User: Fold this.
Amino acid sequence: MEPESSDHPQRLSSDVLSSSYIPADRDMEFLQRDELRSVRLGLELLKPELIQAEEGIRSTIVVFGSSRLQEPVAAKQALHMAEVEAARALNDPLCQQRVATAKRQLALSKYYDVAREFGRLVSSTCQVNGRCDYVIVTGGGPGIMEAANRGAADVNAKSIGLNITLPHEQNPNPYITPRLNFQFRYFALRKMHFLLRAKALVSFPGGFGTLDELFETLTLLQTGKTESVIVVLVGRGFWEHLINWQFLIECGLISQNDLQLFHYAETAQEAWDLIARHNGVSPA
Assistant:
């Protein structure tokens, strides 16, 4: 009998199979390939959409704000620790800067309570008789986001968290409704889901992420890509110190009418009254 030719096709045994044999929808390595990005984008759009529909979410209010702002008790403790450290190193300018920053953080910590009250007020007013209108949606992190989700949880109402995978480890805050706790890979799809059902955007003091999301929404309103969303900036003093709107007008970069794209509020009730009036609902 002649030996088998070396170029004869290799026969597969039942226990040695190539990854090509794995069904495409179960092949995780295959699904992570760059060429599959369009498929992943579609899935990331569809999954949260289907789940929110199943949960009866009809409309939302987006709450943005810093993940670094703590509730007042924690902010006071942070200031105390900074002052103790500074007292041990009187000539260290870095320690003095930490004290100054901690003082500003304490001053801003009042917005944690405002965000929590806003989440509680809106949720108790709108989530009644099984309806899921004006459901609070946040980026799912700590700080202001946690406060808004927490307010909804205070009255046993649903709230949504749209978290995102980042290089550093992070966890969603514990007050999000578990079934409505989502994790995104792509910022673009996350932003889309923020606004798909939104009736309002409420921005508290925050950093790059808050500003990014705020200005994207203002741009959509300015260009007519969306018309139904009302933007409320909480803390007029903070926002007017941060952004010189009048300078933009004087330079001809925005128009005077663009200032009507947003409104100011100081309290949870003021913010909700603006939103309710804009959307023609009873503020209660």
The beta strands are 60-64, 135-138, 159-164, 181-184, 198-203, 230-234, 262-265. DSSP finds eleven helices and seven strands in the chain.
